[in-house]
Specification:
By secondary structure, the chain is an all-beta fold. The chain has no helices and eleven strands. Strands 2, 4, 5, 6, 9, 10 and 11 form a seven-stranded mixed beta sheet that branches. A hairpin with a 5-residue loop joins strand 4 and strand 5 (45-51).
């Protein structure tokens, strides 16, 4: 059974930084494509970023490009999202998703507010 567990969310001031983690089990992580998806209050799901397994190629939504960095540590079976220069509009529940989005974590809340 694939399990994804996010952590690292919290309250951060605009312009600040936060690092989210997604610990995985039950999957060969090094071969698993991983993504971050978020859901702002009252809105639908928004894809944030993806990292591929073969060459660590990454891609980002325009809304976070240049501010967020996705990475993976295959030795620790963990996915990360480094969030810099955060904005109030980044407030959302952040989910990690595996493969073709068939596996999801429970989400971690990120609130950007002064």
């Amino acid at each position: 059974e694939v399990q994804l567990v996010e952590s690292g969310g919290g309250l951060v001031q605009p312009g600040g930084s936060l690092r989210l983690s997604c610990a995985t089990s039950g999957v060969t992580f090094s071969t698993y494509v991983m993504s971050w998806v978020r859901q702002a209050p009252g809105k639908g799901l928004e894809w944030v970023s993806i990292i591929f397994s073969n060459d660590d190629t990454t891609a980002y939504a325009d809304s976070v490009k240049g501010r967020f960095t996705i990475s993976r540590d295959n030795a620790k079976n963990t996915l990360y999202l480094q969030m810099n220069l955060v904005k109030p509009e980044d407030t959302a529940v952040y989910y990690c998703a595996g493969g073709a989005f068939e596996s999801w974590g429970q989400g971690t809340q990120v609130t950007v507010s002064s």
